[in-house]
Amino acid sequence: MKKYPDADANIFLTFSFSSYQLSDQPNILICDWPYDYFIRHFKEKSPDFFERRSIKRDNQQLAGSDLVIVLFKSILPSMVSNFEDRKIKYLDQYVINSLYKVGDNDELTMKKPTHNILFVGGNNYLYISGAKNLVEAFELIKKEYPLAKLHIVGLEKTDFDQLPDGVTCYGYLDKGTQSGKQLYYTLLQSTNIYVNTNTKWSGLSTTIEAMYFHIPVVVFPYDEFISIFGREINFGYYCFENTAEKIADAIRNIFNESQYIQMCRNAHLAVKDFTWSSYAGKLLDEIESVVNKRL
């Protein structure tokens, strides 16, 4: 604020601090979810003494803001119930984080009759159970598809007790580096199925990027995904139980799908309009509206 005292607005990519009571310019917050939601929904517990202090700080910043942009639709009802609905906004769109532009049929020409499975996650409680169950599912289908391969991004070999043949762990791939970017997109281009069945969160942005590359998906029907794509999907399968047996069944269904190429097309078509330019336009319109009210 000292560097840009004449800015039209102060924008913060967090709910934890802002220019509330520090500036006369409009105070705008953009983030995924407040700390209270994170503790109660993902941690599944009541906040402790120190967490309550952080939650109180969040609530003060949110209450003192002129505009709050939430990134996920499923968080909107709880936010609106706790704060003035006039200033809590969801832009009704997600964004593809791909560094490549993919045409409607580009990746289809590269599809090969292979059995490559991709998982992208991280070595924390949100992802590890789904990854371990997927490894068990992979062992179940290996006899039927002996040439199948499972590629795991975001986890190391040491995160598992043991891995069967055909499973490769890459750890974290930094798309900001040439080598990381090249390997990541090579995996996407050669993948036949994307699987992440964690029940709370399956890495929405990564799933959407996989779909953009014409990849059918197997995911748990968590609230955010259903809010975007509905309770029935034509670009993969919902896995209603995060178990090895159910994951294996869903993988078999896609491997044996007679209309597999159409399923690939459906995946791409479901997300192809989630562009940065469209999202940025909506965001700027909201910011401009707040700024103009102050003029």
Description:
Helix 4 (128-141) crosses helix 8 (244-255) and helix 6 packs across helix 9. 39% of the residues lie in helices and 14% in strands. Strand 9, helix 7 (223-229) and strand 10 form a beta-alpha-beta unit. The protein has helices at residues 35-42, 49-63, 76-82, 128-141, 178-190, 204-212, 223-229, 244-255, 260-271, 276-294, and strands at 10-12, 27-31, 67-70, 88-90, 116-120, 149-153, 167-171, 193-196, 217-219, 236-238. It has ten helices and ten strands. A six-stranded parallel β-sheet has the order 7-6-5-8-9-10, sandwiched between helices. A four-stranded parallel β-sheet has the order 1-2-3-4, sandwiched between helices. The mean pLDDT is 91. The chain starts with 9 loop residues before the first strand and ends with a helix. The chain has two domains: 10-92 and 275-294, 3-Layer(aba) Sandwich (Rossmann fold), CATH 3.40.50; 107-271, Rossmann fold (3-Layer(aba) Sandwich), CATH 3.40.50.2000. With 295 residues, it is of the alpha/beta class.
Counting structural domains, the number is 2
How does the major sheet shape up? 6 strands, parallel
Q: Give the overall silhouette.
A: globular
Structural class: alpha/beta
* Total beta strand runs: 10
Determine Rg (CA atoms, Å). 21 Å
Q: Spatial order of the strands in the main sheet?
A: 7-6-5-8-9-10
- For the record, the CATH architecture of the largest domain stands as 3-Layer(aba) Sandwich
CATH topology of the largest domain: Rossmann fold
Average pLDDT taken over every residue: 91
Beta-strand percent range: 5-15%
Oligomer: single chain
Distance between the termini: 19 Å
Could you give me the name of the CATH homologous superfamily of the largest domain? Glycogen Phosphorylase B
